[in-house]
């Protein structure tokens, strides 16, 4: 099948585990009013959006006032399972005031970058996004884990998946997209999907270099988990 892809590209979403990222920090809070109470007040779990990975946990965050209108958020526990930062709502009522604020949360960066894919397990009920490649068994066959379980999937070049299938999407530097028909450590064989106004840079069946970084020349970027 050619040289297999490196295990570093398999990633560690640890679906069902769950890994993903946690919250590293939350920006300063402004725009509240009338707060008079001091101390560290726990932000309600209901005011933090849920992680995207099944099995993940919400962070534990506390809010402390700096003035009647401002304050800071401390991370007591980072949580897990986030692919994008949660929305955190801070309520002035926690400290005797009023109003709400949504300071920006920043995630940790512990998770390695890896191939992103969609898969439909033979034991699953639907196609799902996000998961882990456990093993590359051939250039088109993979052992994968997603939120519905673990199983073998064959790489296909369609957007609609049947049971036992998966897909990978590549993009050229024009922004046109392709499905990956075959993947080795150095080369991806592509099938055209959607063209931009500039058109496709690569013809169907062409084997070209690939990366998880920005596409350059004829080297395409394959969708990744970061």
Written account of the structure:
- The chain is mostly beta strands and 226 residues long.
- It has 2 domains: 7-14 and 113-222, no CATH class; 23-107, no CATH class.
- It is 0% helix and 35% strand.
- It has no helices and 18 strands.
- It has strands at residues 23-26, 40-42, 60-65, 71-77, 90-91, 100-101, 105-107, 118-120, 128-129, 132-136, 141-146, 149-155, 165-167, 169-171, 177-183, 187-194, 207-211, 220-222.
- A 6-stranded mixed beta sheet has the order 9-8-13-12-11-10, with no helix packed on it. It has a 5-stranded mixed beta barrel with strand order 14-15-16-17-18. A 3-stranded antiparallel beta sheet has the order 2-3-4, with no helix packed on it.
- The protein starts with 22 loop residues before the first strand and ends with a strand.
- 35% of the residues are buried.
Task: Assign the structural class, choosing from mainly alpha, mainly beta, alpha/beta, alpha+beta, or little secondary structure.
Answer: mainly beta
**What's the arrangement of strands in the largest beta sheet?**
9-8-13-12-11-10
SSE pattern: EEEEEEEEEEEEEEEEEE
- Please tell me the overall pLDDT: 91
Q: Runs with pLDDT <50, length 5+?
A: none
Approximately how much beta-strand content do the residues carry? 25-35%
In terms of quaternary structure, the protein is single chain
In whole angstroms, how far apart are the ends? 27 Å
Give the topology, please.
Blueprint: E1 23-26, E2 40-42, E3 60-65, E4 71-77, E5 90-91, E6 100-101, E7 105-107, E8 118-120, E9 128-129, E10 132-136, E11 141-146, E12 149-155, E13 165-167, E14 169-171, E15 177-183, E16 187-194, E17 207-211, E18 220-222
Parallel strand pairs: 12-13, 17-18
Antiparallel strand pairs: 1-7, 2-3, 3-4, 5-6, 8-9, 8-13, 10-11, 11-12, 14-15, 14-18, 15-16, 16-17
């Amino acid at each position: 099948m050619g040289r297999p892809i490196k295990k570093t590209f398999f990633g560690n979403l640890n679906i069902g585990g769950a890994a993903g990222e946690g919250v590293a920090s939350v920006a300063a809070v402004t725009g509240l009013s009338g707060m008079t109470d001091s101390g560290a007040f726990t932000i309600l779990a209901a005011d933090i959006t849920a992680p995207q990975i099944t099995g993940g946990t919400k962070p534990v965050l506390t809010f402390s006032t700096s003035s009647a209108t401002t304050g800071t958020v401390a991370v007591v526990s980072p949580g897990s399972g986030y692919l994008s930062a949660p929305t955190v709502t801070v309520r002035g009522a926690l400290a005797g005031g009023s109003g709400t604020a949504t300071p920006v949360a920043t995630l940790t960066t512990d998770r390695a970058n890896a191939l992103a894919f969609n898969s439909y397990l033979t034991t699953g009920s639907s196609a799902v996004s996000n998961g882990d490649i456990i093993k590359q068994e051939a250039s088109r066959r993979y052992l994968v884990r997603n939120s519905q379980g673990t199983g073998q999937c064959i790489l296909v070049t369609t957007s609609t998946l049947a049971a036992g299938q998966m897909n990978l999407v590549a993009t050229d530097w024009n922004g046109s997209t392709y499905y990956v028909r075959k993947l080795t450590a150095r080369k991806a064989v592509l099938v055209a999907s959607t063209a931009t106004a500039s058109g496709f840079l690569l013809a169907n069946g062409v084997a070209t270099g690939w990366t998880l970084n920005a596409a350059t020349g004829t080297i395409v970027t394959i969708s990744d988990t970061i």
